[in-house]
Automatic annotation (TrEMBL):
InterPro entries: cNMP-bd_dom (IPR000595), cNMP-bd_dom_sf (IPR018490), Env_Response_Regulators (IPR050397), HTH_CRP (IPR012318), RmlC-like_jellyroll (IPR014710), WH_DNA-bd_sf (IPR036390). Residues 12-128 form the Cyclic nucleotide-binding domain. One of its GO terms (molecular function) is DNA-binding transcription factor activity. CDD domains: CAP_ED (cd00038). Residues 147-222 form the HTH crp-type domain. Pfam families: cNMP_binding (PF00027), HTH_Crp_2 (PF13545). This is CRP-like cAMP-binding protein. One of its GO terms (cellular component) is cytosol. Coiled coil: none annotated. It comes from the Bacteria. The keyword DNA repair does not apply. Keywords: DNA-binding, Transcription, Transcription regulation.
């Protein structure tokens, strides 16, 4: 088992990366990207799945008017391009590095299918991951369509708490140590940075949250 390298993602289960698995090591390399580099574009062939070793990647698309819509921002341990496993031949989104030191392990669709056939546990984890990802995206789109910016922010903070939060024993607050910048969060909830700053300060003033550059605290309610 020590010959296998696992990434741990924010959904609390692990995805196998084959480039350190002896049978596949020679066929897989780590690719590096700088900020603003694209990993793939809309309409590219969907023949690979990608695992993030380090850095951050944004997934999104452009509207007919040319506006950018961010669907997700992913970090170390997460996978993307997973729709290739569902029989989709062309990308309907782009993937772009938003960090100057992003490293990614690309895995061909055929290799991933072989790994899944050889290990039922891997297959189950990948499909569970895809199901969770789809559910989160559907919820985010619903919020963008029907909820105001404050509600979207509160829902996003709850989601962050599930993924990155822990309870502080001394205060009872939930502490969220997350990898996102304010620009990332504003993009994900579909608002501007000034609006996000205003909403964060309003929540802080009302003692719902506290925050600094490193963490967000969801204050314990009475």
């Amino acid at each position: 088992m020590s010959a296998l390298w696992y990434f741990e993602d924010v959904n609390l289960f692990k995805i196998l990366c084959p480039h350190k698995y002896p049978a596949y090591k020679k066929e897989h390399d780590i690719d590096t990207y700088k900020k603003s580099d694209y990993i793939y574009f809309t309409d590219d062939n969907a023949n690979k799945i990608y695992l993030i070793d380090k850095g951050k990647v944004k997934i999104g698309y452009y509207t007919e008017e040319g506006d950018e819509v961010i669907k997700a921002i992913l970090t170390k341990g997460e996978i993307f391009g997973e729709k290739a496993l569902l029989g989709i031949d062309k990308r309907n989104e782009f993937a772009q590095s938003i960090d100057n030191t992003t490293s990614i392990c690309p895995v061909s669709k055929d290799t991933m299918f072989q790994l899944m056939r050889d290990n039922v546990s891997i297959s189950f984890k990948i499909y569970k991951f895809i199901g969770i990802r789809i559910k989160k995206l559907e919820r985010r789109l619903e919020l963008l369509l029907f909820k105001d910016a404050k509600t979207r922010l509160l829902e996003f903070l709850d989601e962050l708490c599930e993924d990155y939060g822990y309870e502080c024993d001394q205060t009872g607050d939930h502490v969220i140590k997350h990898p996102y910048t304010q620009k990332d969060i504003a993009s994900l909830i579909g608002t501007s940075r000034p609006t996000l700053n205003s909403l964060m300060n309003e929540l802080k003033h009302n003692q719902i949250i506290d925050f600094n550059r490193k963490e967000i605290r969801l204050k314990k309610t009475a």
